[in-house]
Design goal:
alpha/beta; Rossmann fold; 14% strand; 44% helix
Length: 290
């Protein structure tokens, strides 16, 4: 297995990516790299989010093709679906309505990644034997996450805040929004297992459940919960005894987001790690951070 950190390889640099593929000659590619963040980060750095993610996808997918890579898996995001998409969100909800404004640039980039895979398949699938697939994860969490106080996703951000509040004996933790939005979360090892499962699926089976211009597959946990319930669960895992309050002047984002993962279940895969077990492991990982 060949990997590169961001410090080792800038995927926005076309020449660097071309040199990497020329040197390593991989047989398969799992494209999980992306610039990611929560509501605050997406609102603050929209140009960075759309530019960097578009460049990463274009460079890696094209250079994979140029290097003769036959199989590639692109990891997208549940934010590709419209803000008011029917719940749970099925694959055919793509492009049927307006996106959530807080992360529209990121979502546009991820949609472009799906369409890159589909377009290369349509143009070069038969002539070059390529098979580029895409999976759309729900919100992911687990060991190795980004715990930055401002630029992280909701679970690592809350883990950090509840831990710091416990250490400082703070009487209250204030959370953005109303606490009412519903969200779904998947443990990172489950996502890794799903990625390998989809990559290794026989092409006949993959094609049976997808269409050439709607070929992505949702990967979800199957149930969701409110941000309030999530915060209370993290508080319990961390051992915080204080009060939880909500700043209703801050944006909530999409009111409800849960994936319809029936297509993947029909193919034979489902998640294994419960939320409370995953949060416990994630908190232990946070405690090991320098």
């Amino acid at each position: 297995m060949v990997t590169r950190t961001h410090a080792e390889l800038d995927l926005c640099n076309q020449k660097a990516v071309a040199n990497f593929f020329k040197q390593e000659q991989p047989d398969q590619v799992y494209l999980a790299a992306a610039k990611v963040g929560g509501i605050h980060a997406n609102n603050t750095y929209p140009a960075e989010f759309i530019y960097q993610n578009l460049m990463i996808e274009a460079n890696v997918i094209h250079q994979a093709f140029e290097s003769g890579v036959k199989k590639l898996l692109f990891l997208g995001s549940s934010c590709i679906y419209p803000k008011m998409a029917p719940q749970p969100m099925a694959e055919d909800a793509l492009l049927i309505g307006k996106l959530e404004s807080t992360n529209e640039p990121y979502a546009i980039a991820k949609i472009a990644g799906i369409k890159l895979c589909e377009s290369y398949n349509r143009q070069y699938g038969q002539s070059h034997g390529i098979d580029y697939r895409a999976v759309m994860p729900t919100n992911l969490y687990g060991p190795g996450d980004n715990y930055h106080p401002e630029n992280s996703h909701v679970i690592p951000a809350l883990i950090r805040r509840f831990h710091e509040a416990k250490e400082q004996n703070s009487p209250e933790v204030v959370i953005w929004g109303t606490g009412t939005p519903m969200r779904e979360f998947l443990y990172v090892d489950d996502m890794a297992a799903a990625s390998v499962f989809v990559m290794e699926l026989d092409k006949f089976i993959y094609d049976k459940y997808t269409e050439p211009m709607q070929s992505h597959i949702n990967v979800g946990f199957g149930t969701d919960l409110t941000i309030k319930d999530l915060a209370e669960m993290i508080g319990q895992v961390v051992g915080y005894q204080g009060k939880i309050a909500f700043d209703k002047s801050k944006p909530d984002g999409t009111p409800k987001k849960i994936m319809n993962s029936d297509r993947l279940k029909q193919m034979g895969w489902c998640a294994r790690v419960s939320l409370v077990d995953g949060l416990t492991i994630a908190y232990q990982d946070f405690l090991k951070q320098p």
